[in-house]
Design brief:
This protein has a single domain (2-88), classed as 2-Layer Sandwich (Heat Shock Protein 90). The longest helix has 17 residues, at 2-18. With 101 residues, the chain is an alpha+beta fold. Helix 1 runs antiparallel to helix 2 (55-66). Strands 1-2-4-3 form a four-stranded antiparallel sheet, with helices on one face. The chain has helices at 2-18, 55-66; strands spanning 23-29, 33-40, 70-75, 81-88. A hairpin with a 5-residue loop joins strand 3 and strand 4 (81-88).
Length: 101
C-alpha cells in the first residue's frame, strides 16, 4: 500500500506541477527493498521554496519515514525533478527483539 501511495502522489505532483511532456516511473526490487524512481524533465523547483501549505510532498516524506525508507529529491529550476524512494520489504526490529506471528 505504501508503494502505491508514493507512486500515486509523485505522479500527481509531476503531472500537476512539472509542465513536462514526459514522466519516467521506475520500480525495482531486491531481497531487502523496493526502489521507486519518478523523473520528469520539466520546470523543476527549489525544495526550500515549497510552501508549507503544500502537503503532498510532506505527506510522502512522512510516509516514507514511517515505513523505514529513504527519499532523495534532485531538482532545480529548469532542470526537471528526480525523486528516488527506497522502502525496506521487512520492518526493522530493534536488537534483542524477535518477531512472532
Amino acid at each position: 500500500m505504501v508503494v502505491f501511495a508514493v507512486v500515486q502522489e509523485l505522479l500527481a505532483n509531476a503531472c500537476r506541477h512539472s509542465r513536462s511532456a514526459t514522466v519516467l516511473v521506475g520500480l525495482a526490487q531486491d531481497d531487502e527493498r523496493i526502489c521507486i524512481q519518478v523523473q520528469d524533465w520539466g520546470v523543476g523547483f527549489v525544495l526550500e521554496h515549497i510552501s508549507p501549505r503544500r502537503s503532498g510532498l510532506k505527506g510522502i516524506v512522512d510516509l516514507v519515514k514511517w515505513s523505514g525508507g529513504t527519499m532523495t529529491i534532485d531538482s532545480g529550476p529548469g532542470s526537471g525533478t528526480c525523486v528516488v524512494v527506497e522502502i525496506p520489504l521487512a520492518p526493522e526490529t530493534e536488537p534483542g527483539t524477535e518477531m512472532r506471528g
